[in-house]
């Protein structure tokens, strides 16, 4: 740091800043579409009112609009959950996408053959949820009691990734509000986005929980 603060240093320039950082530095946490740009988009009949160029947005202070205000004491940020575990030295893996706000959940089994041997998830989920409540877990901290489960067995990874992205797109189409994706995956966020670009539409928060590699050995 002493070298950077020397009198002859006039400025320090960073050329590898992420696009997200540049946007936050220019717009902050609250922004709005420039009214002139909004009228122009409507005038030209734009069909894409969800994506804007940085120049079309304006900074707004929290005095103009509070940042993510609570509603009835509840945070407006929704949470969904993506799980992935791969068997060591194998192409087999388990994927799960839990969309609590819309009461839907998806399980994808990736194996060499399309054989669905997943037990009844409604029964299994209800039993696990009840067990946690009986052990003293506050029910309000758990996902809702009713989840609609969809299970698919695939033999190609691309089919799994397409399935996850379709489910995320349907979730977005329902406009559930600000949502964070919690990740419990062996793959890094960057690797997941490379496989499923639709994940880049959500903030990703890795959970520091790692399954043991031999988790599914009993299924051999």
Automatic annotation (TrEMBL):
<keyword id="KW-0479">Metal-binding</keyword>
<dbReference type="GO" id="GO:0006297">
    <property type="term" value="P:nucleotide-excision repair, DNA gap filling"/>
</dbReference>
<dbReference type="InterPro" id="IPR013697">
    <property type="entry name" value="DNA_pol_e_suA_C"/>
</dbReference>
<comment type="function">
    <text>DNA polymerase II participates in chromosomal DNA replication.</text>
</comment>
<dbReference type="GO" id="GO:0008622">
    <property type="term" value="C:epsilon DNA polymerase complex"/>
</dbReference>
<keyword id="KW-0004">4Fe-4S</keyword>
<keyword id="KW-0408">Iron</keyword>
<dbReference type="GO" id="GO:0045004">
    <property type="term" value="P:DNA replication proofreading"/>
</dbReference>
<keyword id="KW-0235">DNA replication</keyword>
<keyword id="KW-0548">Nucleotidyltransferase</keyword>
<dbReference type="InterPro" id="IPR029703">
    <property type="entry name" value="POL2"/>
</dbReference>
<dbReference type="GO" id="GO:0008310">
    <property type="term" value="F:single-stranded DNA 3'-5' DNA exonuclease activity"/>
</dbReference>
<keyword id="KW-0539">Nucleus</keyword>
<keyword id="KW-0239">DNA-directed DNA polymerase</keyword>
<dbReference type="GO" id="GO:0000278">
    <property type="term" value="P:mitotic cell cycle"/>
</dbReference>
<dbReference type="GO" id="GO:0003887">
    <property type="term" value="F:DNA-directed DNA polymerase activity"/>
</dbReference>
<keyword id="KW-0411">Iron-sulfur</keyword>
<protein>
    <recommendedName>
        <fullName>DNA polymerase epsilon catalytic subunit</fullName>
        <ecNumber>2.7.7.7</ecNumber>
    </recommendedName>
</protein>
<keyword id="KW-0862">Zinc</keyword>
<keyword id="KW-0238">DNA-binding</keyword>
<keyword id="KW-0808">Transferase</keyword>
<dbReference type="GO" id="GO:0006272">
    <property type="term" value="P:leading strand elongation"/>
</dbReference>
<comment type="similarity">
    <text>Belongs to the DNA polymerase type-B family.</text>
</comment>
<dbReference type="GO" id="GO:0003677">
    <property type="term" value="F:DNA binding"/>
</dbReference>
<dbReference type="GO" id="GO:0006287">
    <property type="term" value="P:base-excision repair, gap-filling"/>
</dbReference>
<dbReference type="GO" id="GO:0008270">
    <property type="term" value="F:zinc ion binding"/>
</dbReference>
<feature type="domain" description="DNA polymerase epsilon catalytic subunit A C-terminal">
    <location>
        <begin position="122"/>
        <end position="219"/>
    </location>
</feature>
<dbReference type="GO" id="GO:0051539">
    <property type="term" value="F:4 iron, 4 sulfur cluster binding"/>
</dbReference>
<dbReference type="Pfam" id="PF08490">
    <property type="entry name" value="DUF1744"/>
</dbReference>
<keyword id="KW-0863">Zinc-finger</keyword>
